[in-house]
Amino acid sequence: MSELTNKQIMQEIFSEMARGESKLFVERMADDFRWIVAGTNQWSRTFDGKNAVLTGLFGLLASKIALPIVTTAQRFIADGDYVVVEARGKSTTKAGNPYNNSYCLVFRLADGKLKEVTEYMDTALANATFGD
């Protein structure tokens, strides 16, 4: 697919995510989708496979954050199979505290499906909000 098509796919996904909806995001994940949380800290890990992302990562988020989770894209940069999304999250923890993180998400797409994302975030904020 062209980089323009890939960028449009990501814009559609993030349009929904800005309203706290993730259905299209989940539908676009390939079965072998991989989510990498970059870094060398307690948040850094890799979730291999759509099911691992849904149960492991999304399950962890749902246990800590009150729904909906709103993520608003600030910028999209496309290059071939890759789309970089600069985004801001706005949510509240289940304890009632704000959790408004900043993200740089590097997506790789193939045949209209999300194959991989590498997430860069403010880990100091995550530590301050959620602890270890």
Please describe the topology of this protein.
Blueprint: H1 3-17, H2 23-28, E1 29-37, E2 45-48, H3 50-64, E3 65-79, E4 82-93, E5 98-99, E6 102-110, E7 113-121, H4 123-130
Parallel strand pairs: 1-7
Antiparallel strand pairs: 1-2, 3-4, 4-5, 4-6, 6-7
Task: Briefly say what this structure is.
With 132 residues, this protein is an alpha+beta fold.
General description of the model:
- It is a single chain.
- With 132 residues, the protein is an alpha+beta fold.
- Helices cover 33% and strands 45% of the residues.
- It contains 4 helices and 7 strands; from the N terminus they run ααββαβββββα.
- It has helices at residues 3-17, 23-28, 50-64, 123-130, and strands spanning 29-37, 45-48, 65-79, 82-93, 98-99, 102-110, 113-121.
- Strands 1, 2, 3, 4, 5, 6 and 7 form a 7-stranded mixed beta sheet that branches.
- It is globular.
- The N and C termini lie far apart (41 Å).
